[in-house]
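Design request, tokens follow.
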């Protein structure tokens, strides 16, 4: 898509715009007035059978443990997504080496992504927005990074 004139046009400066949440992420390449989607990845949500439910373990009239049988392990899921997404971003970086990287991700994902992304990508990280912007239009996200107060 065409980048509006009020934004930088990234002439001969390929810039990678990385937008991610906890289970989905996109990458866009801004170059010569165009914003092109180069990656759209969504982690499959694990499905459980009908054996899920609430349980309690009691002893001497006290509840020792309680919870759902198959609670999702959010931290493990976030780490798995960050690892897979970082590998895909690294592949894009090898195809079209960017001069800068803009990252938009929730606060808890920024740390995980920085750990998993190659050092070459982290070194190019010039701007970051700690928010889940996966459902915003890419030009709106680009505007957040290129506005004077960004």
């Amino acid at each position: 898509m065409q980048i509006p004139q009020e934004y930088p046009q990234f002439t001969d400066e390929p810039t990678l715009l990385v937008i991610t949440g906890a289970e989905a992420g996109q990458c866009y390449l801004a170059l010569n007035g165009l914003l092109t989607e180069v990656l759209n990845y969504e982690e499959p949500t694990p499905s459980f059978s009908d054996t899920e439910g609430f349980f309690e373990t009691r002893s001497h009239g006290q509840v020792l443990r309680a919870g759902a049988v198959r609670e999702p392990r959010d931290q493990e899921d976030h780490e798995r997504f960050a690892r897979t997404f970082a590998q895909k971003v690294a592949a894009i970086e090898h195809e079209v080496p960017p001069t800068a990287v803009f990252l938009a991700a929730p606060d808890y994902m920024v740390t995980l992504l920085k750990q998993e992304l190659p050092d070459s990508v982290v070194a190019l990280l010039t701007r970051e927005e700690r928010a889940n912007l996966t459902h915003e239009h890419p030009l709106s996200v680009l505007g957040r990074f290129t506005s004077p107060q960004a």
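Comment from the thread starter after seeing the answer: thanks! The chain has one domain: 15-146.
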